[in-house]
Write a structure and sequence with these properties.
Blueprint lengths: L1 H6 L7 H13 L5 H17 L12 H39 L4 H39 L8 H8 L2 H26 L3 H33 L6 H4 L7
Helix pairs in contact: 2-8, 3-4, 3-5, 3-8, 4-5, 5-6, 5-8, 7-8
Length: 240
C-alpha cells in the first residue's frame, strides 16, 4: 500500500501543477486561509479514494474547498483541544501549588509531578486524537455532515478494526519517513537547510496526499462506499 500511495499523486498528467499549488499553499499556511484550502483538498482525496477513484482531484471550486477545509479544521480542533486543556489544568495546578507552598522543596516536587503527569496524559490523549481524526474526517467526507465526525457509533467499528490500525500506521510511516528525510537535510549546513526550507512544504503536501489516500482507500473497503459520479469528484456537496 505504501508504493501505491506514493504513486497516487502522480496518477494525473497535471500532477506537478497540483503539487506546486499544494506546496505553495502549505508554505503560506501561516496566513490561515491557505491551510483551510489544503485541508479541503485532502478531504477531496479521501472522498475520491474511498469511492474508488484512482485519479487525484484538482484544485478548483476554491470556495467550496475552503468551506470544506474550515469544517475539517474544526473537526481536528475539537479532537485536539482536550489534550491541551488537560495539560493546561495540570500545569496550572502545579504553578498554583508551587506558589501556595512558598517555593518549598515539597511544593517544587509536587509541581514537578503534576507537570509530568499532565504531559504524559496529554501525550496519550494527543496520540488518541491523532488516531481518531483521520477516521472522523473520512466519515464526514462520506456523509458531508459535520456531526458524523463525532458519531461514536459509526466510528467505533472502524477504529477497532485491524484494517484501520494497519492503514493508520502505514500513513504514519509515510509522514514520518518524509519528516526524517527533511530533518537529515537540515544537518547539512546552509545548502541542506535551504533545500529543506524550500522543498519541505511541497514534499510534505505530497506525503499528506499519499497518507490520506491510504485512509480513504481503507475507509472505502470498510464501508463499501459506492462509486462517485462526476459531480462528486469535482467537489460539489449537498448542504448540511
Amino acid at each position: 500500500m505504501i508504493s501505491e500511495s506514493l504513486s497516487y499523486p502522480r496518477n494525473d498528467e497535471n500532477w506537478l501543477k497540483t503539487v506546486l499549488i499544494g506546496g505553495v499553499l502549505s508554505f503560506l499556511g501561516f496566513l490561515i486561509v491557505p491551510t483551510f484550502l489544503v485541508i479541503g483538498y485532502l478531504l477531496r482525496v479521501v472522498r475520491a479514494t474511498m469511492k474508488g477513484d484512482e485519479q487525484p482531484p484538482v484544485f478548483d471550486d476554491w470556495g467550496d474547498m475552503a468551506v470544506d477545509g474550515v469544517k475539517g479544521f474544526a473537526i481536528a480542533f475539537v479532537y485536539g483541544v482536550l489534550p491541551l486543556i488537560i495539560m493546561s489544568v495540570f500545569v496550572g495546578s502545579a504553578i498554583i501549588g508551587i506558589f501556595a507552598g512558598g517555593g518549598s522543596d515539597t511544593a517544587g516536587i509536587f509541581g514537578g509531578i503534576m507537570t509530568l503527569v499532565g504531559l504524559l496524559v496529554s501525550l496519550v490523549l494527543g496520540l488518541l486524537a491523532a488516531y481518531i481524526v483521520p477516521a472522523a474526517l473520512a466519515n464526514y467526507a462520506e456523509t458531508d455532515r459535520l456531526g458524523s465526525a463525532f458519531d461514536v457509533g459509526a466510528l467505533r467499528p472502524v477504529l477497532t478494526s485491524g484494517k484501520y490500525v494497519t492503514a493508520w500506521l502505514t500513513a504514519f510511516v509515510v509522514l514520518f519517513a518524509v519528516s526524517v528525510v527533511l530533518s537529515l537535510l537540515n544537518v547539512i549546513p546552509l545548502l541542506g537547510q535551504l533545500l529543506s526550507f524550500v522543498l519541505g512544504p511541497f514534499v510534505g503536501f505530497y506525503a499528506a496526499v499519499a497518507a490520506y489516500y491510504i485512509i480513504g482507500q481503507t475507509w472505502g473497503k470498510l464501508h463499501e462506499v459506492e462509486m462517485m459520479d462526476e459531480g462528486e469528484i469535482s467537489g460539489e456537496q449537498p448542504a448540511i
